[in-house]
Amino acid sequence: MFLPVYISRNGMLVPPAQASVAITNPAIYGAYGVYESMQVHGGAIFAVKDHLRRLERSAQLLDLPLPADLPTIETWCRKIITANGAPECTLRLTIIGPEEGDASTAYVWPQAPTVFPRSYYAEGAPVVTFEGKRFMPEAKSLNTLVSFMARRSARAQGAHEGLLYHDGCLTEGSTSNLFAVHDGVLITPPGYQVLAGVTRDLVLGLAERAGMQTAETPLALTALPQWRECFITSTSRHVMPVTTIDRQPVGDGRVGPVTRRLMKLFEERFAREMNGARLMADSG
User: Fold this and answer.
1) Per-residue pLDDT averaged across 52-70, rounded?
2) What is the spatial distance between Cα 211 and Cα 241, in angstroms, rounded to a whole number?
3) How confident is the model at residue 102, as a pLDDT?
4) Do residues 110 and 80 lie in contact, with contact meaning Cβ atoms separated by under 8 Å?
5) Average pLDDT rounded to a whole number, residues 112-121
6) Cβ contacts of residue 215 below 8 Å, gap of 6+?
7) How far is 228 from 259, CA to CA, in rounded Å?
8) What is the mean pLDDT of residues 232-247?
């Protein structure tokens, strides 16, 4: 098991046992807090500024004051990677809402990097649907009960991910964003229905620059049989093909050309940013 040596609490390095939250904190009984998960590769944090801007947006939606400005929080993130000697990890950043009279608290710590079976990328991952809707879907808040239940349901059915649907429309995965190819158009649910993932937004930009037609539109469950391709995106997954939904094939049941092209474009984008970040670090 990957255990951090230190956890950052508002920039101070403390042992994990001291990074505690009081049972009376509103984060415990009210899920009052926000979080981000970031990929660290070669000691560099991928799309760190995008993640921190989303953190700030989530906090604004919850009327949650941040304990410091974004450049300071970014410094805390980089410091904890070095302190733990964790150049390859998933970095967790959680802002816990303040108790009355206190300030918010930022906790940052590294976790083991998430690794998925290679077969998911070569042959596609199986997913299932789950009826539910996250509260305030545009915010990455600590209220993740519906997502937890969707993941549990997926595991019970031998699937990789649970796709949420509400009022007849698919919205997002329990920990991912959803894309499909329908009538030659790359479609994804609109931002007001989902958490706008950092990877989601990067993929949309890559698709548009590659000349693909894209649209943000509600994804009706009834249109599923007409989809030619499907994939999910997230910080840890990057672009992951989906070839079965509720045990039914998507399109011809194989990873399609649009998905393969976007997988390639995203990995090239990831490699460029990580190489650039390492060069900057070496020159500094």
Assistant:
1) 97
2) 20
3) 79
4) yes
5) 96
6) 185, 186, 187, 188
7) 10
8) 98
